[in-house]
Design a protein that fits this description.
By secondary structure, this protein is of the alpha+beta class. Helix content is about 30%, strand content about 40%.
Length: about 100
């Protein structure tokens, strides 16, 4: 079993919030494909990373999680690239962890 996490920004590079419909569309797409989704929206997480030695960038994100028996890396790569275009990002983090249900 795999846990897939998708980290989506709340704001574009211009500081303008993305429309809620964008997030609803992602939820619907993932629910349709995987049968369910967990969404962390109420308390956005904050990410920080260094763009250069003198510039640290901060971003508020929401996290979507789905569980799946099989990891289709090709599908996820294409989906991540599509999300990056939709959210006008150079790249987005989509990560997978192998898990065991107890």
């Amino acid at each position: 079993m795999y846990l897939i996490q998708i980290l989506l920004p709340l704001y574009g590079n211009d500081g303008v919030a993305f429309p809620q419909q964008e997030y609803a569309s992602v939820r619907e797409e993932l629910t349709e494909r995987f049968g369910g989704i967990t969404t962390y929206l109420r308390s956005p997480a904050e990410g920080s990373w260094r763009e250069s030695p003198l510039l640290t960038v901060h971003d508020e994100i929401v996290i979507y999680e789905v569980m799946t028996e099989n990891l289709d890396q090709g599908w996820w790569r294409e989906y991540r690239e599509g999300l990056a275009r939709r959210y006008r990002q150079d790249s987005l983090i989509v990560r997978a962890s192998q898990i065991q249900l107890l």
